[in-house]
Design goal:
Largest sheet: 5 strands, mixed
Strand order of the largest sheet: 5-4-3-7-6
Number of domains: 2
Oligomer: single chain
Number of helices: 3
Length: 167
């Protein structure tokens, strides 16, 4: 787990999604879990009440998730075009690379946290192995990426800021 005070980068949409999740957890889910606890409590002896124990565990997990999202929001920095060098890979960049071992061309969109990423659509977090190797680099640079299957080398062919795609 990352250090509690470490800054995390998010797109404007990524921060909005985290805030929406927090609002949902605090309003809707808390009420649902409180109702489950109330119903289980009304069924008698709590020492042998599996339904009550399960509801309390669910409450603990919920409160843990709320604390985690609040912590992320406190540490979040929204990345906007005016804040970055658009010629370097950053959150909000589309990056075209060529694998040096086989010449395969790939394009990635660099996004904030893991919640924003979607590897099936080539949207990768700046903290992923490939994202962190590309982060801060510019066109023409070579990068080496440590992957579970070994090491891959890429050449950065293009870096482009995605206007509006991060909103």
């Amino acid at each position: 787990m990352k250090v509690q005070g470490e800054e995390i980068l998010l797109s404007p949409r990524g921060k909005e999604e985290l805030q929406e999740e927090l609002d949902y957890l605090k309003t809707v889910r808390r009420k649902e879990v409180a109702e489950k606890i109330s119903i289980a409590r009304s069924r008698g002896d709590l020492s042998e009440n599996a339904e009550y124990d399960e509801a309390k565990k669910e409450q603990a997990l919920l409160e843990s998730r709320i604390a985690e999202v609040e912590n992320k929001l406190r540490r979040a920095r929204v990345v906007r075009k005016e804040d970055v060098d658009v010629d370097r890979v950053n959150v909000g960049s589309r990056v075209q690379v060529t694998a040096l071992d086989n010449g395969e061309e790939m394009t990635f969109v660099i996004v904030g946290g893991a919640k924003e990423s979607d590897p099936a659509r080539n949207r990768i977090s700046y903290r992923s192995p490939v994202g962190s190797a590309l982060y801060g680099r510019s066109k023409g640079e070579m990068v080496e990426v440590r992957l579970p299957a070994g090491t891959a080398e890429y050449r950065i062919d293009a870096v482009e800021w995605l206007e509006g795609a991060m909103e």
